[in-house]
Amino acid sequence: MGFEHISSRRNKLIREAAALAASAERRREEARFLCEGARLCEDAARSGVQIDRCFFTEQAQRRYGEYLNRILPAAQEQFLVEEHVADLLSSTRNSQGIFCVCETPENLKQGKQAFSGACAVLENLQDPGNLGTVLRTAEALGIGCVFLLGDCCDPLSPKVLRASMGAVFRISVVAETSPVRLRDLLKRRGYTLYAAVPDAAASPVTAIDFSEGLHAVLIGNEGNGLTKEAVALCDIRLTIPMAGRAESLNASAAATILLWEMNRGAGY
Amino acid sequence: MGFEHISSRRNKLIREAAALAASAERRREEARFLCEGARLCEDAARSGVQIDRCFFTEQAQRRYGEYLNRILPAAQEQFLVEEHVADLLSSTRNSQGIFCVCETPENLKQGKQAFSGACAVLENLQDPGNLGTVLRTAEALGIGCVFLLGDCCDPLSPKVLRASMGAVFRISVVAETSPVRLRDLLKRRGYTLYAAVPDAAASPVTAIDFSEGLHAVLIGNEGNGLTKEAVALCDIRLTIPMAGRAESLNASAAATILLWEMNRGAGY
């Protein structure tokens, strides 16, 4: 097949794509992001994410031909790029040589808050690996929407995309900087808001009945927990009752337990 | 105070300590390991781990004096080492300049199987970060003992120690290469053995009553799950019922949910 070749690192499209990988601001401005890897680009295509361009290397054609067969038809433009050009786009050590410039999905655009069911709210979560993992777990456990409150890292950054295994394409993720606006949005729809706190005097999560009504749990970051402002907005303070040393539970494990408890009674 | 100085990277004690950090075989042979970091070395001292030697830098004396005040009295020998010497011992990017050569705790020596309560068995877990995280979660959730079955990584490697936040000093961790021997050991004490499998036809973990009797859950590694041999040794196959995409739950999140469920009914 005759794909257009790119052999210069100074090619304009390559430089645009590299800028999307490097800068959250650029991603916001253009409402586009860069997706890397055979599996992740296929996930994007499968999930109906709009793919503007796909860049791939000759080696990728040999090794990941099956993936490319499913990715390339979904892309508006396709470019065969040389290895040293692909290096500019990669944020992994062993690049697979497949990259897609994608349009930001609707659910990640501000003001497009489609959500239902049990919700998780992550406040000031700045570690991309943690955010990706929580999104992945939220998808597995059937959480309806993940809100990113305050100063969270960009869910479309290369690291989050990788750690989330593409969950970000499949579940609703809504960024909201204002705790008050978020509270109002959730309360209008009838949600009960819970603040997860490391306080033995709070309600044990196991004592809360999540099977009726709509529920949203707010979870803070590893270093500081929830802000006082966020806790004050909630209806109920809840905690994870533990037999052992509570300080040993890391943020991601705590989030896993909370998300699990929210849908545990769902009876599937 | 007049501590003995070490300024040469060829010093015999330093080379011995570096070898302990580098080699699991060496740790087994000597029944000793190297512990790095202010917090972790203090954890070792506090947990009653026998400390043969402590090496520390001048900078560590200034920055982590309070920690050293608690570590040094617990060590049999103390050495002030130069930065370039400390570099030889460090497996982190930003070393705190505190290192202890410690004796392997009794509970980690083969044949010393002191355990009680809910147990987790991890099979062929080779990622040090995952192992450390699971040990940390097990401690938080009050799991009585973690067995390392088959070809797991060494719980005393620098990476596991770091990821476990010292949990390995406080909970029982028992390595056992033979599934049959492990089964016999657990069955003799009256344990029921569960194999965690990704199979919707297995018993939902939420349907099992862990509140009576003794229970051990076997958990496989991320890539392959449990071996057939391990599954065959168990009494009951259990699974995590999920509303979403099951393949999205990573091994560490799955382990968190299983450990949580084992002690969830404990009523603390």
Automatic annotation (TrEMBL), chains A, B:
Alphabetically ordered keywords of this record: Methyltransferase, Transferase
RNA 2-O ribose methyltransferase substrate binding domain: residues covered: 34-108
SMART domains found in the cross-reference section: SpoU_sub_bind
Domain of life, per lineage: Bacteria
GO molecular function annotations of the record: methyltransferase activity
InterPro entries on file: Alpha/beta_knot_MTases (IPR029028), MRM3-like_sub_bind (IPR053888), Ribosomal_eL30-like_sf (IPR029064), rRNA_Methyltransferase (IPR051259), SpoU_MeTrfase (IPR001537), SpoU_subst-bd (IPR013123), tRNA_m1G_MTases_N (IPR029026)
UniProt-listed GO biological process terms: methylation
Family indicated by similarity: Belongs to the class IV-like SAM-binding methyltransferase superfamily. RNA methyltransferase TrmH family.
UniProt protein name: RNA methyltransferase
Organism expressing this protein natively: Neglectibacter timonensis
Taxon lineage: Bacteria, Bacillati, Bacillota, Clostridia, Eubacteriales
